[in-house]
Amino acid sequence: MARNDDPQGGLDARRAAAQRQCAELAAATDRAWAIASASEQARAATDLARRALRLGIGMVAMSDHPLQAVRLARLLARHYASLPERRRAFHILGFAPLFEHAEAADLVCEVVRSGDSWQRHILFMSSGSEARLERRFPRLGAALARILDEGDASASQRRAAVEALTLGCWPEAVPALRRALRLPLLGVRSVALNLLLDHPSAALGADDLAFLLADAVAHPPCSLSSPGVDDAYTYAEALVESVARLHPAGGWEPLVRIVRGGGAHTGGTRHWLDEDWALRALAAGYPDRALVHADHAMASENEWRRRGAVDAAARLPEAEARPRLLAAATDPAPDVRDHARERGLERFGASFTAGPDQAWLHDLLDGPPSDAFASRLSVLHGASAEARKAMSEFLLGLAPDREALVLLGEALGQASQFILEPARPGLPRHKEAWAHALLERFGPPAFEVLLRLADRYPCGNDSWFPALHTLLRKGLLPEGARERVCAPAARLVASPLWDNDTAPLNLLAAAGPVPKNLWPRLFAIAGARGDGFVTYAAENALVVVEPCPPLDQRLVDEMEAALRTRDFARFEWVGRVALHRGLHDARAVVARALEADDPDAASALAMLGHWMAEAGALPAAWVDDALDRPERPRFAIATHLVGPSLSAAHRELLVRALDSAARDGRAAAEAAWTLVRLSDLSADDARLAAILDRAPPRERALLLGVMDRWDEPHAERALAVLSGPDRRASRELVEDLYLSDAGLALLAAMHERLSDPDLRETIAHMLHLPTDAERYWQDADLDDEDDEDDADDEGEPGTP
Fold first, then answer.
1. Cβ-count burial of 232 within 10 angstroms (0-12 exposed, 13-18 middle, 19+ buried)?
2. Residue 180, H or E segment
């Protein structure tokens, strides 16, 4: 092999050759630029691309021809689709000086309009990591802002425009960036929000942020591609930082709604803009509002919620952050405990001391711990979920050893015991099975552990309260445990931590009697008329409050007041509680209301009359008389009181009422509803069409709701109810249709035709169909890569 005795000379020769070839390439570029014919210019661009590929790194010599370097790139971008090795050719351009001439601004705009991600990547990287293009190209910002604002711009073009704006700081682009925050383009929003946050003039407005927070409730990112998930993360982080800086008035409200599990129906995941994110944002911008929600999450049985609460606690002021992080640093779940220690050290440095590891149930030991106790505890505190499960299986086999019971209590503070696979055959699979196994193997001391678990992690409907409820219902709790099992549930319901959890309410109602000092709280929960399951559970708990004259008097007074103000919904729920408590004064109020024959009270009295009949407080002749008088409102009440054992006399009265025009067609619809409900009238009976057409919306909804099949005219009648102005009728019909396969099929066929967006979203969610929220983000599945090139194209070379 010949030895090169003059390496510098060889380098100079190669440099000279590159300069000569670049001069020829520049001249060829000028000739191609002057070609008027698009097809001929495309052939010339192909030749230019091949020359550039042969030059390779020698393209740096195009620094002697800055105008031609830019025009070469513009030609390759213009004819990119016809180039045989377009990705490699454009990659080679990255070695050329593309930002040394004023025409580079035109090149940027042309690449942006192409929407091609590879061209954009090479161009932006060649601008230099320290580039501030606003000094060299002062008008580029306005040009990019126009592209971003164009009504017919595609999602990829807008994304390219907003990313190009990251190459400089152009004040004239701020209005367009603010408008971009309202586009249904997650990637564009993410970049625009970060640009506005970084802008030296505090460009982000409080009204912009208020819109984004409200929009996070209605349109959470979901069903995203991989790039979309990354966009969602950067968007979420920017929103937290925005809240920390601006904390707009009222901005806490949408965050609290998300923290409490509210917001749009989504069949997919709330990517990043979930409960944990909202809690962290709340802590960053509204710490006073965040405290109770952070404490609720830290008291959750779900260890992932507790871990999320750690991140929120780290954003709180020091006086609130330190004690919460210290408490979390002793959590039985390794993931929560280690995360709290990391956050504590980041926030407070060496002054954050979590203390030694120990079992939080150590006071239940019946003596000093054995030598093996600490080593077994270290396994339960270790990172391996499989090792923790194996240790739990071993400890379960040591029953009735007290140390084993205490350590199992430690293990059961970890949600991974219940949901992580693979399951171990020797371990129970859910909390009820664990509770039963502990009581069966360890006896009464296990009840103390279960109470402690319920008391430490009381929040969320996946708490230990349902397990205690099951044991109570099956009579498996130790003697005298009924009152004690109520205590943790009562403490939670009475505390600010209670947040619409039904489990403690259900346990109180089952265990009863409920302490009378809790009745005002239960009354307030039931009276709020929020979530139907919650209010019903609170009503049941009120029913079993221990003898309490103030409560009983309040119930009767509320019934009287509700009748005076014609608040029949309130009359119904208060009356239900009062009747189930056996209050004779309440029966008298209901009897008086039944005699009043108020048509607006019929719905409430139908239920109250049913409970009066169950209690033997409604004369049997009352139903006979009411069914004989379809023109009176009490007929509607009586139809609800007719049971499955339909007598011949009652059937005759109901069939006769099918031809009645009384009360604007209500009576006939009520009679038909009863007969169809009791399978005494076929859903395809010819009389039903006329009855449905005469009936008002609510009665029509009730009758359609009990039918098990619909021909096309009946389906159109159902659609008319669902699309009509009576919201109560439409929602009741949806609830009825949801109960049968035929009803579900009808909802699926018509839900897109509904005008009410909330009702349409509800039905789509019920049917597991894409909701408006899931279709909102127009770039959710945007492919960030152009089509594959020739087989000899490289994948994605490194940065030039």
1. buried
2. helix 174-180
| Start-to-end Cα distance in the chain | 32
* Rounded Cα distance, 632 and 630, in Å: 5
DSSP type of residue 308: H
Give the pLDDT of residue 600. Answer: 86
Tell me, what's the pLDDT at 795?
43
The contacts of residue 722 (CB under 8 Å, 6+ apart) are 730, 733, 734, 750, 754, 756, 759
Structure tokens at 486: 């109520």
Using one digit for the tens of pLDDT, what is the confidence trace for 746-772? 888 888 888 788 788 888 878 878 777
Tokens of 306: 């507790």
Closest CA to 379 of 347, 320, 444, 334: 334
- The total of other beta-carbon atoms located within 10 Å of residue 747's CB is 22
- Measured at the CA of 485, the angle between CA 300 and CA 500, to 5 degrees, comes to 40
- Distance CA(388)–CA(382), nearest Å, equals 7
Scanning the structure block, which residue is given the tokens 């809690």?
Answer: 279
CB-based burial label for 386 (10 Å; 0-12, 13-18, 19+)? exposed
Quick one: 99 exposed, middle or buried, by C-beta within 10 A (0-12, 13-18, 19+)? Answer: buried
Q: Which two structure tokens, joined as six digits, stand for 498?
A: 């209670």
Q: Are 87 and 793 in contact (CB under 8 A)?
A: yes
Closest alpha carbon to 467 in 457, 167, 207, 262: 457
| Positive/negative CA dihedral, 383, 387, 391, 393 | positive
Closest CA to 231 of 265, 199, 189: 189
**How far apart are alpha carbons 715 and 684 in whole angstroms?**
12
H or E segment at 191?
Answer: helix 186-198
DSSP code, position 243 = H
Instruction: Read off the tokens for 398.
Output: 């040591």
Please say whether the dihedral angle defined by the alpha carbons of residues 581, 582, 586 and 587, taken in this order, is positive or negative.
Answer: positive
Q: How far apart are CA 607 and CA 53, in angstroms?
A: 83
What contacts 289, CB < 8 A, 6 or more positions away?
252, 255, 256, 282
DSSP one-letter string for 440-458: HHH-THHHHHHHHHHHHS-
Say whether the peptide bond before residue 400 is cis (omega within 30 degrees of 0).
yes
In this predicted structure, the answer to whether residue 777 has a pLDDT above a threshold of 80 is yes
Whether 406 contacts 363, CB under 8 Å: no
The CA distance from 440 to 399, in Å, is 10
Residue (of 420, 412, 386, 392) closest to 404 by Cα position: 392
CA angle 592, 595, 601 (to 5 degrees): 85
Contacts of 400 (CB under 8 A, 6+ apart): 441, 442, 443, 445
User: Which of 699, 705, 660 lies closest to 683, judged by CA?
Assistant: 705
Q: How confident is the model at residue 786 (pLDDT cuts 50, 70, 90)?
A: very low
Angle 145-148-151 (CA atoms, 0-180°, nearest 5)?
Answer: 125
Instruction: Name the band, by pLDDT with cuts 50, 70 and 90, for residue 268.
Output: low
Distance CA 4, CA 339 (A): 60
> DSSP state, 514?
B
- DSSP H stretches of helix in 457-480: 465-473
Residue 636's nearest CA partner among 667, 681, 614 is 667
What value does the mean pLDDT take over residues 543-551? Answer: 96
- Alpha carbons 282 and 42: distance in angstroms, whole number: 56
Evaluate whether 222 touches 266 at the Cβ level (below 8 Å). yes
Q: How far apart (Å, rounded) are the C-alpha atoms in residues 522 and 513?
A: 13
- What's the residue count for the chain? 800
Mean pLDDT of 550-559: 97
What backbone torsions phi and psi does residue 536 show, to the nearest 5 degrees?
Answer: -65, -40
